[in-house]
Amino acid sequence: MDLNHFYKKNYGDRLALLKAQLGLNEADLEVIANGRTEKGNQIIENYLTDFPVPEGVAVNFLINGKEKIVPMVTEEPSVIAAASHGAKMTLAGGGIQARTTDHLMMGQVLMANVEDADELSTQLNQNEAAILKVANDAHPSIVKRGGGAKKLRIRKLAHQFVSLDIFIDTKEAMGANMINTMLEAVATYLHIKLHQTSLMAVLSNLSDECLATATCQIPVASLATKKLSGEDVADRIVIASLAAQVDPYRAATHNKGIMNGVDAVVMATGNDWRSMESGAHAYAVKDGQYRGLSDWKVSDGKLIGTLTLPMPVGFVGGSININSSAQLAHKFLQITSVKELETVIVSVGLAQNLAALNALVSEGIQRGHMHLQAKSLLLSVGATDTELPNAQLQLEKCPVMDANTAKQVLKTLRN
Ligand code: NDP
């Protein structure tokens, strides 16, 4: 397969090459052509087409007293419904309160094979002001905006590593690129000034000084279901969250549920969800054991939920500025700053977690999930909008819910 210098080929040549090599047919080429946008080519390399992931809005969010309509991008059925449901549950307690720390991201100049870590630490401490200046001189525009390198931390690690951590206020941007530029300037300075070489100089995705916290306080009585009292539901949610504190297997799924909502907003706003994911999971293991990211307790007749997450996201930067869907997401959210965005993301994570725990400890998650799963299956086998309601009812009654059964249900209805 001659794919040499694929990146240098024009769009038509790329398609022709793939068509010849892979035996693509006209329908395949149409899928590629239908998704093609001008901007895609500016954002990634070897561009072919945009991959469609559905976007919807979650409702019922009241965050710091303001109603929010939250855009979410996800391929998973029931995520948006659950977020909206979780948000609705918080309304009985006045919605969600959310706050943020400074947008202080961290980057590290990592030095290996350090013979005398104490001596190096002393030298780095003595040069603190100069190091901060070198970092800031490498990206002066962020300093003009009131941001820039603010402080250092030195960590002596196992196997003779020393990490020089630099905390940088990146203002409205996630800041990966500006941080990396600043760190590389510092690495060069250390080489020249202290004759200290470094292994690498790069952003850390564990941005634990750039955090957002959401809390809700829901009157226990409002949680009552037909079968369970509000006290019972609240107690079961508290115990379920405790399980995620003691069992990493449960914690992984607990946190996946939180990230269902978080990632969907991160994607809708054009942000880097891998960065968000790695930050969240690293934060979940901050005391040495992987734990659930949220905490639920009952106090004074209220179910109190708290979620804190690292927030390596931006309101500008990366591809956000040229992504019209991300710009539209800002309009949906009626936000003008990264801090407001952080409050929304963490609040969606909390609501998503509440909805999942509530479903798990009361009716189980499958009932709601399978309803939407039935819809997806029927659509995938060609059900029309008019056929859907009846077909969904029939499919949900079947002992097995898969594509074949969905086809059978449709066939029976059409006869
Ligand atoms: P950019 O490189 O686009 O930098 C953001 C730019 O926005 C700044 O350089 C600044 O330019 C400009 N800007 C305008 N207004 C403001 C403001 N009010 N506050 C701050 N900046 C402002 O993006 P980032 O540095 O944010 O990097 C994010 C990208 O990096 C993402 O695409 C991410 O996927 C990627 N990335 C992630 C990594 C990781 O997670 N480990 C590693 C490497 C890249 P100026 O000051 O010059 O006007």
From TrEMBL:
Describe which pathway this protein belongs to, using the record's wording. Answer: Metabolic intermediate metabolism; (R)-mevalonate degradation; (S)-3-hydroxy-3-methylglutaryl-CoA from (R)-mevalonate: step 1/1
Name the keywords, alphabetized.
Answer: NAD, Oxidoreductase
Q: What does the record list as GO biological process?
A: coenzyme A metabolic process
Q: Which Pfam families match?
A: HMG-CoA_red
Which EC number applies? 1.1.1.88
Question: Which reaction equations make up its catalytic activity?
Answer: (R)-mevalonate + 2 NAD(+) + CoA = (3S)-3-hydroxy-3-methylglutaryl-CoA + 2 NADH + 2 H(+)
Which terms does the record give in the GO molecular function aspect? hydroxymethylglutaryl-CoA reductase (NADH) activity; hydroxymethylglutaryl-CoA reductase (NADPH) activity
Entry-linked InterPro entries = HMG_CoA_Rdtase, HMG_CoA_Rdtase_bac-typ, HMG_CoA_Rdtase_cat_sf, HMG_CoA_Rdtase_CS, HMG_CoA_Rdtase_NAD(P)-bd_sf, HMG_CoA_Rdtase_sub-bd_dom_sf
Which protein family is it in?
Answer: Belongs to the HMG-CoA reductase family.
Protein name (database record) = 3-hydroxy-3-methylglutaryl coenzyme A reductase
Species this protein is from: Pediococcus damnosus
